[in-house]
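User: Okay, second chain of the day. Same drill as before: sequence in, structure tokens out.
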Amino acid sequence: MLQMSEIELTFLGSGTSAGVPMIGCHCAVCESADPRDKRTRPSVLISSGGFTVLVDVTPELRLQCVANRVDRVDAVVLTHAHADHIMGMDDLRRFNSLKKGPLDVWADEPTHEAVQRCFGYAFSGPNPDPRLFRPQLVKRLIDGPFDLGPMQWTPIRLFHGPMPILGFRVGRLAYCTDVNRIPAESYALLEGLDVLVLDALANVAHATHFSLEQAVEEARRIGAKNTYFTHVAHGLAHEATNKLLPEGMALSFDGLRVRAGGVMG
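Assistant: Same drill. Structure tokens below.
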């Protein structure tokens, strides 16, 4: 097992697929003055030892990276291929320029198939003309644990409605967005966590996401030292909701940074 230094996770986006505020909505959260209620689509950076990995590529990627002063991405990992998680892929070209080379994109085969339909041009090798400004991406297949820089990544099988997707464990941190069912065999991969990030869409039940009540129940079962809920819709006001949550649990927010140990178990 790799001996990782401390791991840092930065929430680039913590909102649901519609974002908060939503178009055409004037509810209390969508019009809130609290900056923690402004939620872009869900994505995080996970870094250790100077190596930075982008998890999911949202439509707001450029804005998220500018807001958080993200100057380098060394690799990309995808949880699944829904639009709110991949539609910023073209903006990865800027990181090719900063890195002066291609970026590896790690995903399972169904996710790669969907990404290729939308962004096949980005995986076609070196630019034949240096005047062309397009991404240079390299397909990497997730079929088990894999190493990125000093970090070992373990995929976690999850379900997003009927759709199997991936969460990830890195050291004593786990990222599990867009989930409404954790299969029995995946709980062993969620033991001994410092930080758990878990889907919690709203107060009401949903066909493809945990409700806040369900997410709290799952967080209690998993028993991480700290749990942060993500993919949050406009029904949950940040400050008011956090006052009601158990100790060690909180809504995340765009720009939040958290840390976890680098050794599993």
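The first strand starts at residue 7 and ends at 13.

User: Thanks, on to the next one.
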